[in-house]
Each structure stands twice: as structure tokens, then as C-alpha cells.
């Protein structure tokens, strides 16, 4: 895609995100309709659904030939990475959204033939929009993101998934103990923003395409590594434990995982 | 103390806090001088020290007869709860401050003969000041704090100390598993604000007087329970594992701790 076309898409997506945020904020103090999906900890609300419908509608109008992969299923069945795919998470961190009305994100990604083109991760309450891609660079609220320092695990705080720590999956306890401390925020989007802003040296969680699709584009552009937990290439349509980290911390963590 | 006198003190302390926040923010992008205290995870910076000296100076001028208990030792040796005691934590969550420049708090408490009079917990970057006491009530950025719902552990998110989870102290893993999820924020002040705002149903960590002194006054005023981890009365001069929670969650957690 040409740079001017990319900038035009970028402007359009940011418009959707701002409208989407305003929609969510307008309803944030109303009584939510909360349903459970696979367990009592896997929630969906009327706002997740409304917001996905809103974004799907905008994308269909703007890019009718593309496929859409959305968490709540209002998009398409997507079985191949051919062509253009939009990936959306209308509310990432729904548990935080329901219980805290805070610490949740809206995420949008555009892939073309499996390659990341543009990614957007918005911390709605914290008011951070991380945006960009390989051809535009990464921006934090419109300002170029400062280079992310290549900190080691030993010198950084690590974002982890609560359940993975409690089950000590992949030696998660050792990983936490080697770091300066673990943090658990409960939203992939919030953790990914924290890694991009240098507040965490990495993040590990079991993720689905809508959890990591946008973040992956931004993180790889910023020189971070995002792979499966055992260091393999991450397929954008897969659901798997994901390891995002600085290059140094990524190596440190792989050593502990493979012990 | 009379209500007018309390309001006058309240106004004065808020003035110190705003000045103190401005001092911290002015230096937040400078290179910090970081020293370790008891371990590589127990840090103090030049800004912790400067801010404690600033607050101690303000208190000495305003209330010369009172004793001051400060984390960094610029106050007094305090061995009894008699009389007026000011307790200050100039930067709570120093690790977050150093590694994130985010998620840290400034805290001030006033006790008289062991009884909490006024407490202040300020999330510097998140811009929340929780303030008040038994005679004034609790305020969030100057607005009366909405009543905190008496949510059970099973229906809430719980804030925990990372090290206590990793060592499974006091059945912390069971506590996390019974809740809807654990969160680890790495600052007592940030966790206490989250409990007061209803974002967490409770918080458990090993704490020192400057970590819980201010929060205790606000939490008890708001109808929350703060005790030792085994449910005993919390002495304001003690360093101990602390359990803060709604009444329901407090009971739920004590049952798990004593298993």
C-alpha cells in the first residue's frame, strides 16, 4: 500500500476509535447486561456486542471486500490469512470493564496476506492510543514512540497472566522470581501498551487473535519480539500462550521456559 | 478536634500534597539516583528522599509538637502512639516509580493517641486524591466517595502482593482462585485507592506503617475492614501482613487463611 493510502486509512480508523470510545464512555455508568461464555471468568456485555457491531459496520462500509475477525462473532469465519483481514476486540479486558470500569482496551488490526499493516490499541480510561505499523512507525497519542530500551528480565517488571502464575505453567514462578517483580493487569491491551511504553519488560499470557493481532504489529515495529511461549513464529489466526518481550528479556524467558 | 480545625488542617495538607506532586512531576523525566535498601527489589531514590524532607519540613513548621514517622527516616523514632503522629510515605511503590514512572502514590496520615484523624492517598499519575477521615468522611478528588458495595470474594477482583502469591503464603493461591481474578499493581497506595473505588474487593500484602497508615483511616471510614492477615486488630506502628477487604470478602478470606 502507498504511504498516502495508509495515512488515509489511519485517519479513518482513528475516527472510528474516537467514536467508539465516546459510545462506551456514554454508557459506562449504566447497568450492564453481563453474560458468561466459557466460564464464570469469561464475560461478554451488551457493550462489547454493540461496540463490535459498530466497528464491523464501519469496516464493511469502508472496505467491503475485506474479511473481519471479531471476538464476539459479528464478523466472518476466517480460515486463511489471504487478502485483507481486519481483527477487532471491541472490549479487551471485559472482566476489568465489568468490575472496575477501568483498565480495558479497544483494539483494531489490519493484516494483508498475513502481514501486519496497521495496529491500534486504545486504553480507554487511561487515555492512551498506541497506533501505527511497519510503514508509518509507532505513535503514542500521535507522538512518535520513544525507542524501547532492550532491558533484561532481571532489570525489569514482567506482566503475567494470573491463571498461568497460579498453575505455574511454563515455569512462570521462576520467570517472576528472576524479574524485579510481576504485575497482573488483566487486559492484554493494557499490558501491551505498558511494554511499548517501557513500563514492563515483557508480557506472557494465553491469547487469541483479537488479543494480540494489533499489539503484534506495533510491538514488532518497535523492535520487540512476540512469539509463542516456546519461541516459535506466531500465526495470526492461532490461539496460544504468547511471549512478548524486549529481545534480551525474550531470550532470558525462553531459557527459563525450556528448563 | 473541632470540625473547623479539621477542615483547616485538611486544606493545609492538600496544599502540601499538590506542591509535593508538582515537585515530583517536575523531576520525573530526570535521571534518578537509585539506591537499594534491604534487597535489589527494595529501592529508594533521590526523589523519595527530597519529597520526605519537603513534607517533614512542612509538618514541623505547621505542627512542631507532633512526632513524624517517615519511610526514609527523616522524621522521628516513634515508639508509642501517644499524642499526634504524622505518618508519611513520600513515594509508595518506588519500584513502579523507578521502572514505570507510573503507578506510585504519596501518602500522609495524622493519628492522635492511636486513633486515625485524617488520611491522604494520592495516585500521582492517575490523578486521584483520596482524602478524609472519620469526622469529615471520604472524598475522591473532592467529591464524596460513593458507598463501597459489600461484595464477596467470589464476586470480586483481589489485589495481592506478588511475593506472597509466589510463596503461597497464607493460602494466597486459594484466595486468588476463589476470587474472579487476582491483580498485582505493586503499590499499596494504588491498591488501596482501587479498593476504595470498588475496583478491587480487597488487598493483601506485607505492609509497614507508612504503607497502610493513611489508607486505614480512609478504608475504616468507608466501612471496609483492615486487620492483620489473621483478623487481629492492626497496631499502627506494626509491620505485618495486612488484609483489607469489604466485610463479606474479609470473612471469606479469613476462612481460607485459617484452613
From TrEMBL, chains A, B:
InterPro entries on file:
Inositol_monoP_metal-BS, Inositol_monophosphatase-like
Q: Which cofactor does it need?
A: Mg(2+)
Residue stretches in coiled coil: none
Give yes or no: UniProt keyword Transferase.
no
Which residues are involved in binding Mg(2+)? 71, 89, 91-92, 211
Q: What GO annotations for molecular function exist for this entry? A: inositol monophosphate 1-phosphatase activity; metal ion binding
Statement: the UniProt record of this protein carries the keyword Nuclease: no
One Pfam family name from the record?
Inositol_P
Q: A GO BP term, please?
A: inositol metabolic process
| Domain of life, per lineage | Bacteria
List UniProt keywords, sorted A-Z.
Hydrolase, Magnesium, Metal-binding
Q: What's the protein called, per UniProt?
A: Inositol monophosphatase
From which organism does this entry originate?
Answer: Lentilactobacillus otakiensis DSM 19908 = JCM 15040
Amino acid at each position: 500500500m502507498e504511504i498516502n493510502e495508509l495515512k488515509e486509512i489511519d485517519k479513518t480508523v482513528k475516527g472510528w476509535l474516537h467514536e467508539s470510545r465516546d459510545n462506551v464512555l456514554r454508557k459506562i455508568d449504566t447497568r450492564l447486561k453481563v453474560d458468561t461464555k466459557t466460564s464464570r471468568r469469561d464475560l461478554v456485555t451488551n457493550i462489547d456486542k454493540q461496540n463490535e457491531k459498530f466497528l464491523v459496520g464501519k469496516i464493511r462500509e469502508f472496505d467491503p471486500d475485506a474479511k473481519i475477525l471479531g471476538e464476539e462473532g459479528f464478523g466472518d469465519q476466517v480460515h486463511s490469512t489471504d487478502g485483507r483481514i481486519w481483527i477487532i476486540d471491541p472490549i479487551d479486558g471485559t472482566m476489568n470493564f465489568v468490575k472496575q470500569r477501568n483498565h480495558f482496551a479497544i483494539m483494531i488490526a489490519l493484516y494483508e496476506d498475513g502481514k501486519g499493516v496497521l495496529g491500534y490499541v486504545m486504553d480507554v480510561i487511561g487515555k492512551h492510543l498506541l497506533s501505527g505499523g511497519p510503514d508509518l512507525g509507532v505513535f503514542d497519542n500521535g507522538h512518535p514512540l520513544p525507542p524501547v530500551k532492550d532491558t533484561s528480565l532481571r532489570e525489569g517488571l514482567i506482566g503475567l497472566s494470573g491463571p498461568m502464575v497460579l498453575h505455574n505453567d511454563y515455569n512462570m514462578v521462576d520467570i517472576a522470581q528472576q524479574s524485579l517483580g510481576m504485575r497482573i493487569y488483566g487486559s492484554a491491551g493494557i499490558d501491551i501498551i505498558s511494554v511499548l511504553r517501557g513500563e514492563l519488560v515483557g508480557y506472557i499470557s494465553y491469547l487469541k487473535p483479537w488479543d494480540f493481532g494489533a499489539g503484534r504489529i506495533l510491538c514488532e515495529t518497535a523492535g520487540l519480539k512476540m512469539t509463542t511461549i516456546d519461541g516459535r513464529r506466531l500465526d495470526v489466526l492461532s490461539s496460544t500462550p504468547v511471549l512478548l518481550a524486549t529481545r534480551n528479556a525474550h531470550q532470558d524467558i525462553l531459557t527459563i521456559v525450556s528448563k
